[in-house]
Amino acid sequence: MRLGKVLITGGAGFIGSQLLKRIIPHCKQIFVIDDLSTGQISAIPKTNKISFFKSCITNIDLLTDLLPHVDYIFHLACSNLLKSVINLERDFYVNFYGGFTLLRLAQKYCLNLKRFVYTSTASIYSDAEVLPTTEDHYKIRLPYAASKFATEHYCAVYYHLYKLPVCVLRLSNVFGPGQTTENPYCGVVAKFFAAAMAKKPLIIYGDGQQTRDFTYIDDVIDAILLAARKKEAIGQVYNVGTGCETSIQALAAEIMKITSYEKGAVIYKPARPIDIVFRRAIDAKKIQKELLWKSNFLLTEGLHATYQWLRRGDY
Known about the structure:
Elements: E1 4-9, H1 14-23, E2 27-34, E3 50-54, H2 60-66, E4 72-75, H3 81-84, H4 88-109, E5 115-121, H5 143-162, E6 166-171, E7 174-175, H6 188-197, E8 202-205, E9 211-212, E10 215-216, H7 217-229, E11 236-240, E12 246-247, H8 248-258, E13 266-269, H9 285-290, H10 299-312
Parallel strand pairs: 1-2, 1-4, 2-3, 4-5, 5-6, 6-11, 7-10, 8-13
Antiparallel strand pairs: 9-12
Helix pairs in contact: 1-7, 4-5, 6-8
């Protein structure tokens, strides 16, 4: 798959940096925009194909310069879930206004745009009544979910009004190599591994019975690239998840086993304002059928691969 010239927002983050590593051989040039509020410059591969810009995605002058040269846009940048309840204005400005700005300018300046892939979130389902949850459900409870879902709506607007070739992917609890606690807002898998490998207590918020649908990073990158390549993806919204529920307690136990820390301590703390989802399992039949995507990694396989990567220390 030849991608030509690509823009990745949030390219210094976990998912963005792993996408970069996968697509470098297939690109002529890659522009990366990241304000490094959570991303790490060290996560960006060193190659003359990549031009990095430390900036917010609302930088209109920068976007106006770059977008006329872009064939593909992968919009991954966002203010994260935990920070959203602390600063609603920033969440709105980065996630919603930033997404709208990118769509607006892409429609204006990207005359040869082949695909605009937007990574949304399973957080829009909140504590869903239907499990596994399909794409036609939503329950907005937190600002992060509101801003991400609003941007989905504007993706639909720009597709229907202007035929902008958009595709939306709702990702569920992504984990794997590339995710470290250098980002203080990283996911629970990275935090559990960091604690277990340091022989420190694993911290669980709430009673630990809450479940999540953990999706391995390689499977997520596969989905992103299928969304960019397959014409059937244009104008569509897809779940990306395994359909399997894993409790946080079970996750902690598995990571403690993998790291030979079975007798380690677990500390329970009160649930945080963001901890409103008791069960999560994502129905991915649509992307499986239409784009022929599949989840290749079981949770245990992905955890073992993550542990081996952490032990090598090549990050």
